[in-house]
Amino acid sequence: MVDYSRWDHIEVSDDEDDTHPNIDTPSLFKWRHEARVKRMEELEEEKRRILQDVIDVQKEKAEIKKRIEDKDGKLNELEKKLFEIELKEKAALEKQEELRKREKQQPLNVDTISKDSWSKTLINKPVARNNKELSDEERQELYTRFIEENEKDIKSYGMLSKWDDCKRFLMEKPVLCCEEASNYLAIWCLNLEMEGKSDLVKHIAKQVISMQYILELAKQLDRDPRSCISTFFTKIQMADQEYIDAFNNELEAFKQRIKDRAKIKLEEAMKEVEEEERQARLGPGGLDPLEVVETLPPELKACFDERDTEKLKQVLANMSEEDANYHMKRCIQSGLWVLPADEERRTDEQEENVENTYGEIEKAEEATESK
User: Fold this and answer.
1) Is residue 114 domain-resident?
2) Rounded CA gap, 240 and 235, in Å?
3) Among the three residues 232, 255, 280, which one is the final residue of a domain in this structure?
4) Looking at CB atoms within 10 Å, which of 233, 265, 266, 320 has the fewest?
5) Do 325 and 234 share a structural domain?
6) 49 lies in a domain?
7) What residues make up the domain containing 41?
């Protein structure tokens, strides 16, 4: 059975014709219509304002709870602040509920009685790219070209904060609603985190998750992501607490992933820098002077630290010939000790003579065995 009671309360002043003969009926109807439209606009503006108050206070509440969990500040003060925020949240929700009841009691009129229950935007779907058939080079080329053409707009979107501004911007530039833009924003967050700009990361991360929510909504509805822009922002602004909590949880998880990944990337970068510095330090024999000096006996190391040549000679004289030769050879190979050119030449000749001597001994032994 159909319930027709909702039609009992309809404002149809535009169609009334029982006005006084001395009154200009068209002007009266026009004035009534303009007054009604203004009341409707004021009601919509109040709805947006109250909704924004609810979002702001719930965001502040989540931040305080996070600080309590992380023990970031005095617990008593944080709990007191949380209590005050919860009171503000309760008052904001009560205002929102009161407004909904007031809106429900508003009489239907010519501007609302035939309002579309469902509206959708039809956008011609582009031919989908089959990325499975593309090589890595082709994918990278497509991504690079997209970023070159849209980088400025992507960054502009990343810096927005209010839902209405985000919606308006994406509706004007729907081409940004894609995986490439989402990936660029995520990489931007990673780079900013590595630069230590964590506050900016928190701001842009919200835009990343918003974009991912739109893309996921498009997959669920099997629609072009561009046609889901308005749907998502309407849903997030009018969402219940469960949906908002899910969004915030996803946002916090993303920020943590960015923080963890940035830490790993910085450690890898530090290792690369250290290896490059080590390679640059290597002496003529391929040894690292820092590693060699740490392995020297304390008395020998002190000679190099003090740059005392005479003391070095005394220390070497007190060491066994084998130990002295071992340590000095490593010092020369690492560049800690640089031989004069003529001494270096004599050293090379000595090594060559030793090799020749060993060669002659081996030949003599072979001759003896053959006899």
Assistant:
1) no
2) 9
3) 280
4) 320
5) no
6) yes
7) 9-105
CA distance 192 to 186: 10
Residue 9's region, left for phi above 0, alpha for psi from -120 to 50, else beta, is: beta
Phi-psi region of 286 (alpha: psi -120 to 50; beta: other; left: phi over 0): left
Question: Within 13 Å and on the Cβ side, how many CA atoms surround 317?
Answer: 6
351 in the same domain as 274: no
Domain CATH number, residue 228: 1.20.58.610
What is the predicted pLDDT for the residue at 323?
83
d(C-alpha 76, C-alpha 105), whole Å: 44
Mean pLDDT calculated for residue range 179-192:
92
CA atoms of 212 and 225, how far apart (whole Å): 10
Query: Measuring CA to CA, how many Å separate 225 from each of 96, 211, 213, 229?
Result: 31, 9, 10, 7
264 and 148 inside one domain: yes
Q: How many structural domains does the chain have?
A: 3
370 belongs to a structural domain: no
Q: CB of 164 within 8 A of CB of 52?
A: no
Cα distance between residue 348 and residue 368, in whole Å? 31
The reported pLDDT for the residue numbered 6 is: 46
Give pLDDT, residue 220: 85
Whether the per-residue pLDDT at 87 is higher than 50: the answer is yes
The answer as to whether 113 is a domain residue is: no
pLDDT digits (tens, 9 = 90+) for 234-286: 888 888 888 888 899 999 999 999 999 989 888 888 888 777 777 777 777 77
For tokens 């391929």, name the residue: 286
- Select from 284, 283, 286, 295 the least CA-distant residue to 323: 295
CA-to-CA distance for 296 and 327, rounded, in angstroms? 7
Share of the chain above pLDDT 90, in %: 19
- Mean pLDDT for the chain overall: 76
The pLDDT tens digits for 109-138 are: 544 444 443 344 444 444 344 455 677 788
Mean pLDDT of 169-191: 92
- The residue from 105, 124, 158 where one domain ends is 105
- 298 alpha-carbon distance from chain centroid: 50
Residues in the chain, total: 371
Q: State whether 149 and 255 are in the same domain.
A: yes
For the record, the structure tokens of 20 come out as 């006084």
